[in-house]
Design brief:
Blueprint: H1 31-34, H2 48-53, H3 55-71, H4 74-87, H5 100-106, H6 114-118
Helix pairs in contact: 4-5
Pfam families: UMP1
Keywords: Chaperone
Family: Belongs to the POMP/UMP1 family.
Length: 133
């Protein structure tokens, strides 16, 4: 029995090596172009890193599919339009947005994470005031 839910298992990103780097005279790559230690940017040291990186996106997708299955297409469409409207709220360039509406719609206002503790004005490198602009 299928409920039409998206899979939770993380799929590894495909590694594309479309470009070819010319080898040197001895068949080795030049250190000037490749560097001393080359690693793939997509490789992770732990399998949960990719899952945690996409946690909020996966949770939002799962919630939208469950809403569509239980209440119909109108519920995810309404929430999507509310999120889009919350993202388009404009501010003056020197004022930072707190994204309270977006956080309350996505449920992040109920969570406390590292971005809440370390993203305050006192920890920022540059603090912009109204008089500076």
């Amino acid at each position: 029995m299928s409920f039409g839910l998206p899979p939770i298992k993380v799929k590894p990103a495909p590694i594309c090596n479309d470009f070819a780097i010319d080898n040197g005279s001895y068949g080795l790559q030049s250190l000037m172009t490749t560097g001393l230690a080359t690693t793939h940017a997509g490789d992770s040291s732990h399998p949960l890193i990719l899952s945690e990186r996409n946690y909020h996106k996966n949770r939002h997708t799962m919630n939208m599919v469950m809403l569509r299955n239980t209440q119909g297409l109108h519920a995810p469409l309404k929430i999507t339009m509310e999120l889009k409207a919350a993202k388009q709220i404009g501010r003056l360039p020197f004022l930072s947005s707190s994204n309270v509406m977006h956080d309350s719609l996505t449920g992040r206002d109920l969570e406390i994470g590292p971005e809440d503790v370390f993203n305050t004005a006192e920890f920022r490198e540059i603090e912009i005031t109204v008089e500076d602009t």
